[in-house]
Amino acid sequence: MRDRVPGPDVDEFAEPERIVAALARARPGTLLAVQHPHRTPAALAAGSSLLDALPHAVAELAHLRRNAYREVRDVVAPYRVDGPDGTAYGLLCMVDPAAVGHTEEVYPDVVAERARVLAGLGCVTSAAMLVPVAREVRLTRLVAEVDDEPAVSVVDPGGRRHWLWLVGPGERQDALVAAAGEHPLMVADGNHRVAASAGLPGLLALVTAGPDLRIGPIHRAVAGTGLSLADMVVAWRALGLVVTPVDVATRPSPGVVVAVAGSTAVRVRLPSAGVDHAFVETVLLDKALGLDPESPHVRPVTGDVPTDGVDAVLLIAPVPLADVLAVHEAGGRMPRKSTYFTPKPRSGLLLADLG
Fold first, then answer.
1. Per-residue pLDDT reduced to its tens digit, 269-279
2. Model's pTM, two decimal places?
3. 39: CB partners within 8 A, 6+ apart
4. Boundaries of domain holding 49
């Protein structure tokens, strides 16, 4: 990019209604509108489908590329992000999607939508985050040694500083690419983007091992069901679960979910030894409450826990990194929206042409 990312930040966990609200507040000509052309005020007013809106997105992207970006060729991008959730060094580059190991189950409709947008635009606007599966990763040291003037240096709304360098063909690029490909790669963030890239020429990704990678929580908000927290407690106890009242400041822990509604909270002890997110979706939501975890009534939540417009929020403890690695090594997949790796790269700093 030349100066700044055009428009609001792309929230990778934004629900459709939040994207619609963000686009309604934004000025015309944003990268978010290019990624979600059927959710702009104009598209909604016209009743446009994604396929109807794609030609406008293609034209908008061409305009942004002319005015907000400068063209670079045959580069890889050493990348550093610093913030309250840690530091990560990595390489922003193109990766073969077939060489990447998925870590989570995905929502098929989200993958299909992303694939249509990618194919229609012929350009990747946001990067997946891939982690080498190894104890020692040479790439971290190589990127940390880069001390040239960065091509991009920005601070995002979360207070993280992002640096990006551009390295063209030569020995340094060869060394960085070789280091990025030394170990098997698993998806830390962007399973839907990786799946949507299948069959395309490449996947834009940040390959990083940290050193401060962390997994934060992804909770579940329940909204528009007409159920009170008391109703939920009755349903959960009917399945034999132990549910007890607690203070709203109580935090979850492995094997314990805390459900909060306004000034009331309860603790639900999970009998399963598996991943908490799977039990929440299959038992607490589906079996007990009859709620499809993929429906608009259930949405993943990261960051600040919502207090308005929800029936309850189910707080779930973060999954330990060791558990994710063990599932990956065994060839399994985590439940959908169960891992929230930080610190993440910022979307829109570098676009990748698929032509």
1. 998 767 899 99
2. 0.87
3. 16, 19, 20, 23
4. 16-67
